[in-house]
Each structure stands twice: as C-alpha cells, then as structure tokens.
Specification:
This protein has helices spanning about 45-50, 75-80, 100-105, 115-120, 125, 140-150, 170-185, 195-200, 225-235; strands at about 5-15, 20-30, 35-40, 60-65, 70, 85, 155-160, 185-190, 205-210, 210-220. With about 240 residues, it is α/β, with parallel strands linked by helices. The structure holds adenosine-5'-triphosphate. One of its GO terms (molecular function) is ATP hydrolysis activity.
C-alpha cells in the first residue's frame, strides 16, 4: 500500500523479568485505521499494547509511530509523541469527580480534545460531571477513561478490552464512539475478546497466540473467515 502506517511494529519482543512474553510481533496500523488484536486469555494482547506504550521494562525490536522510533523512550515521552493507552482497568480516579478526572489527563500535549468536543462525543459524561468516578456505571467509566486519553492530544489510541463486562446496549454505545473516533481520523489498536464487536469496527485483525502473530485478516470478513476465527478463539 502507498499509505505509510501510523504505527509500525517490527519484531517486537518483550519480557516479564526473565520470562519472555512476546516473540517478534510485527503489525501495521494505517493512519485512521482500526486494527483488532484477537486471541485467547493469556495470548499476549495486553502485553503488546503495554509494550507499545513503553510499560514493559524490557522490550526489543522496533515500534515506530509516525516514522519515529519509540524503543528506548519512556512511557511519558511516548505519550507526548501522541500515543495513548486506555488500560483494561480504566485508570480513572475513583474519588475525584468526572470534571476533575477530565482536568487531569495522564499527559498534556498540543491538540488535546476540548471539553466541548468531549461532550459532543460522550453526552453521558457531561450529564455526570459532578459525580465521583467510582459512582459511575461500568459504561460511564469506560467512556470517561477514553475521554481522558482524548484530552491528552493522542492521535493513536490503544484500547484494552473496552467492552469487558458491559451490557449489550452499552457495548453498542462504545462501538459508536469508536466509529466517531475513526471518522475524526484517530488511529486505533483494539484488544478484544468480543469478536462480534471487533468484527464490526475493525479494518484488519491480527490473531495472537503464545506471544506470536499466528494469523492476519483484512476486513470486511466473509462468513467462512468469521467462522474459523470464532472456532479458533473458543477452543
Ligand atoms: P488477557 O485477555 O487475559 O489479558 P492477553 O492476551 O492480554 O490475555 P497478556 O495479559 O498479555 O495476555 O499475558 C501474556 C502472557 O504474559 C501470559 O502468559 C501471562 O501469564 C504473562 N503475564 C502477564 N502479565 C504478567 C506479569 N505482570 N508478570 C509475569 N507474567 C505476566
């Protein structure tokens, strides 16, 4: 393809102490593209997004964002380049209000989304401005977590299991949010257990097993591909 990827992983390996968790993972996310990492529990999906963010104490290979190498940079420097991680545990401040959470993004760089745009994207967040983080529903917490990362000015967003534990109607709202973010031009790497959800929002899929890439698929998927991925994930 002629389009240079926004996010380019080449032979990325990572370790927890002495224990190797990733083996030469290579993948691309095009500017404005949505790629899903699929795989069973413990496959290494979370480790990939943590490695991109610089959160593993040992990683090797190459992770380039908009042509800049990030291996060797701290998580803060990586965030300042324009990558944001919405972690599985969401990372919001439970005892602070929604408004305070929005005023305290993990980093601040140019181009952070204004509160007005945040409220357009997440009307529920506006409605809950004075509530404490830990008084929110799971879906509201997820939306606040995404909103805080959009406040940082990140252009590439790593979403770790955004739909986990949420009711189907809330999962639909998260889907609309991701579609809006895509329309706004954000580059998105998604970790998902919910394959039906991932299949609807993604342009491409990378299947992970034992810390390795074992398959790659371009969307939209045909029914035979959907069946074979579903069978693989449920074994
Ligand atoms: P899940 O959906 O369960 O989070 P995952 O695909 O995201 O699955 P990872 O969390 O990336 O998987 O885990 C990959 C491997 O790394 C697993 O074998 C796991 O046991 C191991 N691992 C994860 N976190 C740590 C840690 N802090 N210390 C040591 N090993 C870890």
């Amino acid at each position: 393809s002629l389009v240079k990827p926004a996010l380019e992983l080449r032979n990325l390996s990572a370790w927890y102490g002495e224990s190797r968790a990733l083996y030469d993972v290579s993948l691309d996310v095009k500017p404005g593209g949505v790629v899903s990492l699929l795989g069973r529990n413990g496959a290494g999906k979370t480790t990939i997004v943590k490695s991109i963010m610089g959160l593993m104490n040992r990683r090797e290979g190459s992770v380039r964002f908009e042509n800049r190498e990030t291996i060797g940079l701290s998580p803060r420097k990586i965030a300042l380049l324009g990558i944001g991680l919405v972690p599985e545990e969401r990372g919001i401040f439970g005892t602070l209000t929604v408004q305070e959470n929005l005023m305290l993004p993990p980093v601040v760089r140019d181009g952070g989304m204004t509160l007005e745009r945040i409220f357009d994207l997440f009307p529920n967040v506006r409605a809950r401005l004075t509530a404490a983080g830990n008084a929110l529903s799971g879906g509201e917490q997820q939306m606040l977590a995404i909103a805080r990362i959009l406040r940082t000015g990140a252009r590439a967003i790593l979403l770790d299991e955004p739909t986990e534990g949420l009711a189907p109607v809330i999962v639909q709202q998260i889907r609309k949010t991701i579609e809006s973010m895509k329309e706004m031009g954000f580059t998105i790497l998604l970790v998902e257990q919910n394959f039906d959800f991932a299949a609807r929002v993604s342009d491409a899929f990378v299947v992970i097993e034992n810390g390795r890439v074992v398959d790659r698929l371009e969307g939209p998927l045909g029914s035979a591909e959907i069946e074979s991925v579903r069978r693989f994930l449920s074994v």
